[in-house]
Amino acid sequence: MLETFNIIMKINNINQQSKETLLTPRFYTTNFEEMSKLDISNNQEEFEALLQEFRADYNQQHFIRKTAFNNSQALINKSAKSLFVEFLERSCTAEFSGFLLYKELSRRLKNTNPILAECFLLMSRDEARHAGFLNKAMNDFNVSLDLGLLTKHRKYTFFAPKFIFYATYLSEKIGYWRYITIYRHLEQYPEYRIYPIFRFFESWCQDENRHGDFFAALLKSQPNLLNSWQSKLWCRFFLVSVFITMYLNDCQRSNFYSAIGLDSRQYDMQVIRKTNESASRVFPVALNVDHPKFFQYLDLCASTNRLLINIQHSNYPLKIIYKISLYLKIAWLCFKLYMIHPVNSKGIWETIK
Q: Is the whole-model pTM more than 0.85?
């Protein structure tokens, strides 16, 4: 498989090449009628300031391929190449997913909330640039995603608007910390910069950060999403969900991080701490990532997930029963993570100061 990299990915065989799982990037839809009724008047100034930043389009000239890309794929060794292409594919799918959701929200809100509509339109512009840039990078390896066909054939997951706000805020913020952490590491150790795309991560992550700020403003404009006891439970749920998803994905791909000089576990620990800190500026609670059991539970989830992957490709006689027991174990560990007593966000900032 490592020897044959002249594959063109088409939608009719995408299930064979990249099977969709609970950890696969997904496409989302929501209740557009409910979104159209949002009242953002109590945070109008912040939205207007954000809109000015989006209009400025600081990265208009950033995503332009240069000669550094010429034959750069030849510098990546065979053992890292498949992992790197998978990284590009997953990233492209995630960015394109954001583009589709934001574009549709812009269209649906145009007549009812022009400020939000324009913000979503300009964020969809950013996501389209990211997806297009990643897809061009995949072409360097003779691989491509047919984004048009992907739009028609990919399953869409419904999320209520408030869940879109929580999840996308965290997704954008964790994206920022992932990109900037890799960028800073490769600035310090340029010998691990195996492909020119990493040079673009500094400005790229600023798009993610601005998008996160937009969803933070949306959450703040709806006080019931931050000030109720239910909101504290949902904030904890989405923090745990996003961190577990990243941790399991990255543990499966530790060889990719090794190829760029990173330890996947240490990398994830740093990203989780930074994202948790960022979320504490908006969410009423944050996770207690310093609890001695926190990363132990994540490690147990990762090792159990590895067993699941191995069982999937085995001829184990009681395969289904064993898989169910492993899924239940992961669910139990997730519950135990959730039940670690959270930290009041105010308390976090008093500690940091």
A: yes
Same domain? For 184 and 247 the reply is no
Query: Given the DSSP bridges, would you call strands 156-158 and 27-29 parallel, antiparallel or unpaired?
Result: parallel
Kindly state the tokens that stand for 305. 């997930």
Is residue 2 included in any domain, yes or no? no
Q: What is the dihedral of CA 326, 329, 330, 331, to 10 degrees?
A: 120
Element (DSSP H or E) covering residue 283: none
**Cβ–Cβ under 8 Å, residues 337 and 294:** yes
Per-residue pLDDT tens over the stretch 274-287: 999 999 999 999 99
220-250 burial string, b = 16+ CB within 10 Å, else e?
ebbeebbeeeebbebbbebbbbbbbebbbbb
Distance CA 221, CA 213 (A): 12
Mark residue 228 as left, alpha or beta (left: phi above 0; alpha: psi -120 to 50; beta: remaining). beta
pLDDT at residue 352 is higher than 70: no
C-alpha count within 13 angstroms, C-beta hemisphere, residue 127: 26
Q: How confident is the model at residue 62 (pLDDT cuts 50, 70, 90)?
A: confident
Residue 248 CA to its chain's centroid (Å): 13
Q: Tokens for 180? A: 């900037």
pLDDT at site 24 = 56
Contact 47, 175 (CB under 8 A): no
Binned at pLDDT 50, 70 and 90, residue 75 comes out as: low
Domain termination residue (choose one: 203, 225, 247): 225
